[in-house]
Amino acid sequence: MYDRILFPFDGSDGARRALDHAADLAAAVGATVQVLYVADTARDSVTTVGSEVVDALEREGVASVEEAERLLGGTGVDVETDVVQGDPAESIVDYADRYRTDLIVLPSRGRAGAGLTVLGSVTEKVNRLSPVPVLTVRMREDERLRFPYERVLVPTDGSEAAEGAADHAVALAATLGASVDALSVVDDAGLAAEVRSLVGDDRTDADARAAVRAVAERAAERGIEAGKSVDHGSPAEAIGRYVDAHDVDLVVLGATGSGGLDRLLLGSVAERVARSVPVPVLTVPVDER
Fold first, then answer.
1. Where's the UspA domain (predicted)?
2. Quick check: 240 and 153 in contact, CB under 8 A?
3. Of the N and C termini of the chain, which has fewer Cβ atoms inside 10 Å?
4. Of 81, 115, 137, which closes a domain?
5. Range with top average pLDDT, 69-83, 183-197, 274-288
């Protein structure tokens, strides 16, 4: 399913945990892990100091990717390493495009410092810009990094983006032998009473049921067991509740969502979910199937 998995590495403890997770996934699908260090030469302070600082960043980058290569040495996966200079998020996205990466596995936080990829805001920027799916792994002690995935949650609003994410999730679940849970959230929490009466709860619930049914049918075609659920309220909060209540291992979201009154805004929602749920979140671009 994936041939090349890109992993930006900064040498932090959290990044090492996330690297282990990326290695597990790569081993399961037979992918090569591309370990990348971005020397952040886009900072004004680096530009002002000049070439000596850049050389130091390059040396630290080489040491970091060599460490990652050592850590992956016993996993049996193929490893490639590289060090590049530039803006971290843009460099990661450009690298993925240039070297035909199929998936970016991105820790959601790293240590800060001159030249080190600060994987927080960088993660969100990569998710917005990336032409390929991005697996966000929060580097916190409460993160549940279980593999292989046994239960995959697919939030859906029936939009093109959500359908693309569902296709990707079903294919991944089939590869790993996981089950799929389809969840649609009727986002009526922010609507005034008069607007809800005009829209009609029956119609929005019907749309939500149709959306989860479509995902379940996709899963059934691959012989995958699929659950179907509809909830009301804030999409991000509902997704978080579902993850906690149903022992979910992975959440797969579309990068954007539909624009109707009953929409599931899977752009901003994806960012909120990635910051809050204690499991990895896979974001799939709208044109990636």
1. 1-138, 149-285
2. no
3. C
4. 137
5. 69-83
Q: What is the CATH number of the domain that holds 210?
A: 3.40.50.620
**Residues 187 and 236 both lie in one domain:** yes
What distances in angstroms separate CA 99 from CA 12, 20, 103, 104, 285, one per listed residue?
25, 22, 11, 12, 18
Q: What is the pLDDT of residues 252-268, one digit of tens each?
A: 999 764 433 333 344 57
Question: What single letter denotes the amino acid at residue 86?
Answer: G
Co-location of 166 and 253 in the same domain: yes
Please list, in sequence order, all residues whose beta carbon lies within 8 angstroms of the beta carbon of residue 194, skipping any fewer than 6 positions away: none
Instruction: Indicate the Cα dihedral angle 24, 164, 143, 111, nearest 10°.
Output: 90
Token pair in block for residue 131: 């032409």
DSSP of 139-157, one letter per residue? -STT----SS--EEEEE--
Residue with tokens 């294919």: 171
CA angle at residue 159 from 158 to 164, to 5 degrees? 95
Model pLDDT, residue 269: 82
Task: Please state, in angstroms and rounded to a whole number, the distance separating the CA atoms of residues 174 and 285.
Answer: 20
Output 265 or 59, whichever has higher pLDDT.
Answer: 59
Place of tokens 């909120």: 272
CA angle at residue 289 from 280 to 174, to 5 degrees?
Answer: 65
Same domain, 121 and 160: no
Mean of pLDDT over the chain: 84
Asked if residue 286 belongs to a domain, the reply is no
* pLDDT tens readout for residues 137-185: 987 666 678 999 999 999 999 988 899 999 999 999 999 999 999 999 9
Task: Tell me if 233 sits within 8 A of 262, measured CB to CB.
Answer: no
Query: Six-digit token pair at 209?
Result: 């049921």
* Together in a domain, 113 and 228: no
